[in-house]
C-alpha cells in the first residue's frame, strides 16, 4: 500500500486548477510548496517575485554598504593590495555561486543555509547555521541603520541626538519591512538602487572635478595616496573583513552581477581615494565637502532606507517561517499569522537597533559583521558542500581533478576560519580603541557621527 504524502511535502506537487461549472464554482490555483504548504486564493504567496523584481533586489543588496566602505579599505591597504584582495575575494565568490547552484540542483528540497547545515552536521548544524544567518542579516541591518543616522546628521547639521536618529531609522525600517513579500517590495529595491547609484556617482564626479580632499581649516590637505599601505595586523584584517561583507550577499547570483559590481567598487573606490587619500570619509559620501555631502546624502537617504528595509526583512521572514512552518498560519491571513509576523519584525528591528547603538562607528561595525558572520556563512559551508557531494564518488576513483577539488575546498575552509578568527579579533580591538580614544564614539552616544 502506497504511503500517503502530505501535499506540502510532495516535491512532485504542482499548481493546479479545479472547475465545477455546473455548481457555478471555480477555485483559484493552489500552489503546493515544500516550505509554505498549500497556497490558496487570499493567502500570502511568498514565491511570486518576477525576474525583474529579483534583479532589482540583487542589485540593491550589492550596491550599498559595500561601495560606501571601499575607499576607506583602499586607504588602509593601499590601492594595489586593495584591488588585488578585492579581485581575489570576488573570484572566490564566483566559485561560491557555482557551488550553491550545483548543490541546489542535487538537493532540490534545500531552501536555506540552515537546511544545508542539517544535511552536513545534523540538528546542531541546522540550529547553528540558522542562528548565524539570522544574526548576519540583523547586524547588517544595524550597519544600515547607522548609515541612515549619519545621513540625518549630514542633512540636518546634527539637529538632534544621534541615538534619536538611529531610533527614527529603526522605525522607518519597521514600517516598510512589515510588507510581507519581496514581490511587493521590489519597487522599493528599484528606487533604492537608483538613488544610491546616483549618490555614489555624484560624489565620485565631484571629487574628480574638485581634485583634492575637502578643505581643512581653509587649507587643502596634502595628497597622501598610498599605492602600498603599511597597515598593522588589526587594520589589515578589518579591511579584509569589510571586503568579505561586501561579497557575502552575492550568492546565489548570476556571474555577471558580481563582476559588474566589482567594476563599480574598483572605479568608485579608486577615484575617491586617489583624490582624498587618508582624508576619505566612511561612508564615502562625505568625501567631497559639505555641499556635495548634503546633496549626495539627500539622494542616498531613500536608498539607505531601502537597504535597512531589505536587510531587516530577510531575518524577519526566517524567524517567522521557523515559528509557523508546517502550520496553516504560515500563509493564511489568520490572527496568529499577523501576530507572529509583526512580532518577528519588531523583535528583529529591536536587536538591530541595539547593535547599531552599541557600535556607533560605521567602519568598525561593517568589519565586525564581515568577520564574525559573513565569512563563516560563505567560505566554510561551501567547501563542505562540495565535499559532501563529491567525497564518496571521487574517493572510489581518485582523479587529478578530484584531488585538486579536495585541496581547494580544504583551503577555502581553513581560509574561512583564519578570516573569521583574525577578523573578529581585529574588529573587537578596533571597536575598543574607538570607545577609549579622545573624541571617540560611545554606545548610545548623542555625538555627531557625520565625520
Describe the secondary-structure layout.
Elements: E1 19-20, E2 25-26, E3 31-33, E4 37-39, H1 51-62, H2 65-77, H3 79-106, H4 113-156, H5 162-177, H6 182-210, H7 233-248, H8 256-276, H9 290-324, H10 335-358, H11 362-396, H12 400-436
Antiparallel strand pairs: 1-2, 3-4
Organism: Aspergillus avenaceus
Membrane topology: Multi-pass membrane protein
GO cellular component, one term: membrane
Task: Specify the structural class.
Answer: mainly alpha
CATH H level, superfamily name of the largest domain: Amino acid/polyamine transporter I
So, CATH architecture of the largest domain? Up-down Bundle
Q: Number of helix segments?
A: 12
Q: Mind describing the biggest β-sheet?
A: 2 strands, antiparallel
| H and E order | EEEEHHHHHHHHHHHH
The strands making up the biggest β-sheet line up spatially as 1-2
Give the end-to-end Cα distance, rounded to a whole number of Å: 72 Å
**Share of β-strand residues:** under 5%
Number of domains: 2
What is the total tally of β strands?
A: 4
**Which CATH class of the largest domain is shown?**
Mainly Alpha
What would you report as the Rg, rounded to the nearest angstrom?
23 Å
**Apparent shape:** globular
Amino acid at each position: 500500500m502506497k504511503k500517503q504524502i502530505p501535499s506540502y511535502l510532495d516535491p512532485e506537487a504542482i499548481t493546479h486548477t479545479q472547475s465545477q461549472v455546473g455548481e457555478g464554482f471555480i477555485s483559484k490555483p493552489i500552489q503546493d510548496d515544500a516550505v509554505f504548504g498549500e497556497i490558496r486564493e487570499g493567502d500570502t504567496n511568498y514565491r511570486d517575485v518576477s525576474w525583474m523584481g529579483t534583479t532589482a533586489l540583487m542589485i540593491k543588496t550589492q550596491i550599498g554598504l559595500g561601495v560606501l566602505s571601499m575607499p576607506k579599505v583602499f586607504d588602509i591597504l593601499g590601492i594595489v593590495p586593495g584591488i588585488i584582495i578585492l579581485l581575489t575575494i570576488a573570484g572566490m565568490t564566483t566559485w561560491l555561486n557555482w557551488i550553491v547552484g550545483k548543490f541546489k540542483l542535487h538537493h532540490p528540497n534545500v531552501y536555506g543555509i540552515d537546511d544545508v547545515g542539517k544535511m552536513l552536521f545534523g540538528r546542531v548544524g541546522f540550529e547553528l547555521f540558522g542562528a548565524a544567518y539570522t544574526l548576519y542579516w540583523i547586524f547588517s541591518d544595524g550597519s544600515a541603520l547607522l548609515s541612515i543616522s549619519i545621513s540625518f546628521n549630514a542633512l540636518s547639521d546634527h539637529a538632534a541626538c544621534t541615538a534619536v536618529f538611529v531610533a527614527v531609522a529603526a522605525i522607518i525600517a519597521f514600517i516598510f519591512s512589515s510588507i510581507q513579500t519581496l514581490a511587493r517590495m521590489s519597487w522599493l529595491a528599484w528606487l533604492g538602487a537608483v538613488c544610491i547609484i546616483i549618490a555614489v556617482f555624484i560624489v565620485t564626479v565631484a571629487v574628480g572635478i574638485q581634485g583634492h580632499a575637502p578643505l581643512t581649516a581653509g587649507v587643502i590637505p596634502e595628497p597622501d595616496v598610498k599605492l602600498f599601505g603599511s597597515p598593522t595586523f588589526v587594520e589589515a584584517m578589518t579591511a579584509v573583513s569589510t571586503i568579505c561583507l561586501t561579497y557575502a550577499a552575492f550568492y546565489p547570483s548570476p556571474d555577471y552581477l558580481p563582476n559588474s559590481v566589482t567594476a563599480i567598487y574598483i572605479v568608485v573606490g579608486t577615484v575617491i581615494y586617489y583624490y582624498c587619500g587618508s582624508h576619505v570619509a566612511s561612508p564615502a559620501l562625505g568625501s567631497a565637502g559639505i555641499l556635495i555631502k548634503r546633496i549626495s546624502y539627500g539622494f542616498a537617504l531613500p536608498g539607505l532606507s531601502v537597504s535597512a528595509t531589505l536587510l531587516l526583512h530577510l531575518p524577519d521572514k526566517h524567524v517567522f517561517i521557523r515559528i509557523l512552518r508546517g502550520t496553516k498560519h504560515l500563509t493564511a491571513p489568520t490572527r496568529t499569522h499577523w501576530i507572529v509576523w509583526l512580532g518577528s519584525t519588531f523583535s528583529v528591528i529591536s536587536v538591530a537597533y541595539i547593535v547599531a547603538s552599541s557600535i556607533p562607528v560605521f567602519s568598525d561595525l561593517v568589519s565586525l559583521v564581515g568577520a564574525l558572520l559573513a565569512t563563516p556563512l560563505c567560505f566554510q559551508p561551501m567547501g563542505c558542500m562540495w565535499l559532501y557531494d563529491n567525497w564518496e564518488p571521487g574517493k572510489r576513483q581518485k582523479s587529478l581533478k578530484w584531488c585538486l577539488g579536495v585541496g581547494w575546498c580544504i583551503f577555502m575552509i581553513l581560509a574561512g576560519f583564519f578570516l573569521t578568527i583574525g577578523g573578529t579579533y581585529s574588529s573587537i580591538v578596533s571597536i575598543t580603541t574607538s570607545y577609549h580614544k579622545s573624541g571617540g564614539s560611545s554606545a548610545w552616544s548623542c555625538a555627531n557621527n557625520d565625520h
